[in-house]
Write a structure and sequence with these properties.
heterodimer; A: about 130 residues; alpha+beta; 3-stranded antiparallel sheet; globular; B: about 400 residues; alpha/beta; 7-stranded mixed sheet; 4-stranded antiparallel sheet
Chain lengths: ~130, ~400
């Protein structure tokens, strides 16, 4: 199967790979997927007191499209408020990367990762 | 060096130049283009002679009688003809068939079709090394078992099943034994005068011959009968009608001749390259060879690099043509059924790469591959949350994953 240029670019030069200290109170962590399905994504957001995402990092076990989806998301969420980030949808990700239908689940997983991280942020703050 | 480096010889092989040359002499007006069934003129006789020579070469490769070789379009058709043909012909004797879970789809799907027609099929589990447990096979054999179909060499992991012993067990019980030998013929010795095999499937394009041609061995003593699946002019003694594809057959015959002549040389060459490859990657942490270490062909080498997903690894190994046990491209997201049958965990099954080495692979190819594999694994593990958890001492099997 042929990948789009954007997928290949993110795959070869993934942005923001890495981890933050998950015990840091400003860090929210979302981990989604399962090894059985061949994809696991970990997305971490550094959120300031104003609720703005200052930084993001990811680690992904999965195919090229899964890696590209999570890499793209880390770029997109930076500078956004959590409310804005929450509105990012998988269709925007899939469109940007020109994912074929069999890879749509990768973009869904990336959307889920954002939601899971924000959920983590809110539960830590007791919201 | 030609990039990408071809390391997918188990999927198909390039045609050997010696084979291509012979095939080209069977196509045009100045070549042997005739129909071997034409009995009334020289064009037909010459074509028939070339088909006879090819049939002899294939028979010699596996120590059979040329009259036991039936040409087909490939191993898939041979498997269909053998399994459906024998099951249907002998169905009055019984309607039970035995095969293994790690067989090729051409066998498994044919068995599924027979189930729809009222046959009962037992799909044997294999041991963790990929081999059929002969005790399990024996226990599965029944009064009404008419056919056992077990492959010689597995296409994904390269393990060699003990078809000599299985043949004995079948013969004692008068059960017909079919062997899919697509991955073994021309690679390792096959002696059908010794083996108690009744039906054996061959493919030309796995042994440096052309695609679109294969053969089925049908034993004469004791005589095995089949219900034909393709009807028409009664070619191939009624087993398989259709005008013989002379250029394809000539190609397969020459491929068989070369394979027999070069078998020792090829084996030595491929073994050396496989050892070289393994020496270059075995130091990588959490790396496992899939399938039995002793009973295996040299050319197929299936390795799991734990915590790295196969498809992303294939993308990172962009200078080489290899295949992955992870089938994430399909909607099902299922890893290889063969690796699952060995009992591999999901992560390991998704993390496998099949390197298959062949006649035209060079040392320089392997050295380049080793370098790229090492770099790719480092990079992808750096990116893998599973690797991070493993390094932190987290037991992944204890985590409740939210599947999607």
């Amino acid at each position: 199967m042929a990948y789009s240029e954007k997928v290949i670019d993110h795959d070869e030069n993934p942005r923001n790979v890495g981890s933050f200290d998950k015990n840091d109170p400003t860090i929210a962590t979302g981990m989604v997927g399962a090894p059985a399905c061949g994809d696991v994504m970990k997305l971490q957001l550094k959120i300031n007191d104003l609720g703005v995402i200052e930084d993001a990092k990811f680690k992904t076990y999965g195919c090229g499209s899964a890696i590209a989806s999570s890499s793209l998301v880390t770029e997109w969420v930076k500078g956004k408020s959590i409310d804005e980030a929450q509105k990012l949808s998988n269709t925007e990700i899939a469109e940007e990367l020109a994912l074929p239908p069999v890879k749509i689940h990768c973009s869904i997983l990336a959307e889920d990762a954002i939601k899971a991280a924000i959920e983590d942020y809110k539960s830590r703050r007791g919201e | 060096m030609k990039l990408p480096i071809y390391l997918d010889y188990a999927a198909t092989t390039p045609v050997d130049p010696r084979v291509a040359e012979q095939m080209m002499s069977c196509l045009t007006m100045d070549g042997t283009f005739g129909n071997p069934a034409s009995r009334s003129h020289r064009y037909g006789w010459q074509a028939e002679e070339l088909v006879d020579i090819a049939r002899n070469n294939i028979a010699e490769l596996v120590n059979a009688d040329p009259r036991e070789i039936v040409f087909t379009s490939g191993a898939t058709e041979s498997n269909n003809l053998a399994i459906k043909g024998a099951a249907n012909f002998y169905s009055k004797k019984g309607k039970h068939i035995i095969t293994a879970k790690t067989e090729h789809k051409a066998v498994l799907d044919t068995c599924r079709e027979l189930e729809r027609q009222g046959f009962e099929v037992t799909y044997l589990d294999v041991m963790a090394n990929g081999l059929v447990d002969l005790n399990v096979l024996e226990n599965a054999m029944r009064e009404d078992t008419v056919l056992v179909s077990i492959m010689h060499v597995n296409n994904e992991i390269g393990v060699i099943q003990d078809i000599a012993k299985i043949g004995e067990m079948c013969r004692e019980r008068k059960i017909i034994f079919h062997v899919d030998a697509a991955q073994s013929a021309g690679k390792i010795p096959v002696d059908l005068a010794e083996l108690k095999v009744d039906l054996m499937s061959f493919s030309a394009h796995k042994m440096y011959g052309p695609k679109g041609i294969g053969a089925l061995y049908v034993r004469r003593k004791p005589r095995i009968r089949l219900e034909a699946q393709m009807h028409g002019g009664g070619h191939e003694r009624g087993f398989r009608s259709g005008t013989l594809a002379v250029h394809q057959i000539v190609g397969m015959g020459e491929a068989a001749r070369v394979a027999k002549e070069d078998m020792q040389k090829d084996t030595q060459h491929i073994l050396e390259l496989r050892s070289r490859l393994w020496e270059g990657v075995k130091h990588i942490e959490e790396t496992y060879i899939n399938g039995d270490m002793e009973s295996r062909v040299p050319g197929i080498f299936n390795v799991s690099f734990n915590y790295v997903e196969g498809e992303s690894l294939i993308m990172a190994l962009k200078d080489m043509a290899v295949s992955s046990g992870s089938a994430c491209t399909s909607a099902s997201l299922e890893p290889s059924y063969v690796l699952r049958a060995l009992g591999l965990s999901d992560e390991l099954a998704h993390s496998s790469i099949r390197f298959s080495i062949g006649r035209f692979t060079t040392e320089a190819d392997i050295d380049h591959v080793i370098g790229q594999v090492n770099n790719a694994i480092d990079k992808l593990r750096e990116m893998s949350p599973l690797w991070e958890m493993f390094k932190d001492g987290v037991d992944l099997s204890k985590i409740e994953w939210a599947g999607h």
